[in-house]
Write a structure and sequence with these properties.
Shape: globular
Strand content: over 45%
Distance between the termini: 39 Å
Largest sheet: 18 strands, antiparallel
Helix content: under 10%
Length: about 300
């Protein structure tokens, strides 16, 4: 079996854990090499015997975790969801489509959707139902934007299946160049820093909901909380231009807007954090230049809007 011969399919479920039956023609996602891992509780049997040899443990609470990277690219036309739509929705985002214009994703706090993932590895297929998970976005200058997904779902043993035909989007990913970046402190003026990299991490906490009546004792993978964060690395400037240390000390929130892939005057992909508060400040070198590493927490604004992703 070849590591590069793999296909990932994803489709939103009509009800939790019900196989959505994704197909290669309609639900294929172009990914990096997927990693599939079986998870379980290891129940040690600490009982006495005439020897010091350990007894075989029991296993319980089986689930499956799959992770992979995906290029950040838009839908075929403005107002059409990107191919990663089912993954974003299964990570706790609500999708809002404005036909012919845009597709927006905002986090929710209830009625979470779930997805079925089929992961084909050359000759075997993992059919993973009830998937929910996490998303991280990285935008680095001169490279295309990348989403990293880590999804967890109900356990099922793989089956022997040939690779399906997969129809992938023909849209090319845009490079992180000619980007829009704005930082606006609360009560202050907009500032445009010089950066080389920006990250946004959803940081969902996943909870395994157990049930003695279910196979493997698992009823559901739930999203129980989130602590969305990010990192930005601006070049250091005089305090009169942008006083990062004062904003850190006084917990001053900044609105952070990052967009790139401009089509005319409009960015194709925009990520917005209404209230970003620095978690710490660290100097670092960027060649001969002094820069500053700013991890930040995406704070409560109006609720369920700490990170907004818009495709146009």
């Amino acid at each position: 079996m070849y590591t590069r011969r793999a296909v990932v399919l994803a489709k939103i479920e009509t009800s939790y854990g019900t196989d959505a039956d994704p197909t290669g023609e309609a639900n294929a996602i172009l990914t990096g090499r997927p990693s599939v891992k079986g998870l379980s509780d290891n129940l040690e049997r600490n009982f006495v015997s005439p020897t010091l040899s350990p007894l075989a443990p029991c296993k319980a609470g089986h689930t499956v975790e799959v992770s992979f990277d995906v290029e950040a690219r838009t839908g075929a036309e403005p107002g059409t969801p990107p191919e990663i739509s089912p993954l974003l929705r299964a990570c706790g985002f609500e999708e809002t489509v404005v036909a012919g214009t845009s597709v927006a994703y905002k986090p929710v706090s209830d009625d979470f959707e779930s997805a079925t993932l089929y992961v084909f590895l050359d000759g075997i297929c993992h059919k993973i139902r009830g998937c929910r998970g996490n998303m991280k976005f990285v935008g680095e200058v001169g490279k295309y934007g990348v989403y990293s997904f880590s999804m967890r779902g109900l356990y099922a043993e793989p089956v022997d299946l040939p690779l399906p035909s997969a129809a992938y989007s023909a849209v090319l990913p845009d490079l992180v160049e000619s980007a829009t970046l704005k930082m606006t402190p609360e009560g202050g003026s907009q500032y445009i820093p010089v950066i080389s990299r920006i990250e946004f991490d959803l940081h969902n906490e996943l909870f395994r909901r157990d049930d003695v009546t279910r196979e493997d004792g698992v009823r559901e993978i739930m999203i129980s909380s989130r602590k969305t964060s990010g990192v930005i690395d601006p070049e250091m400037v005089p305090a009169a231009a942008k006083n990062y240390w004062s904003e850190f000390r006084n917990r001053v929130p900044n609105q952070v807007v990052f967009g790139y892939g401009a089509a005319g005057a409009t960015d194709k992909i925009t990520l917005t954090v209404p209230r970003a508060v620095y978690d710490e400040v660290n100097y670092q070198d960027r060649g001969p230049l002094l820069s500053i590493q700013l991890p930040f927490i995406c704070q409560y604004n109006l609720g369920d809007d700490e990170l907004i992703i818009v495709y146009r």
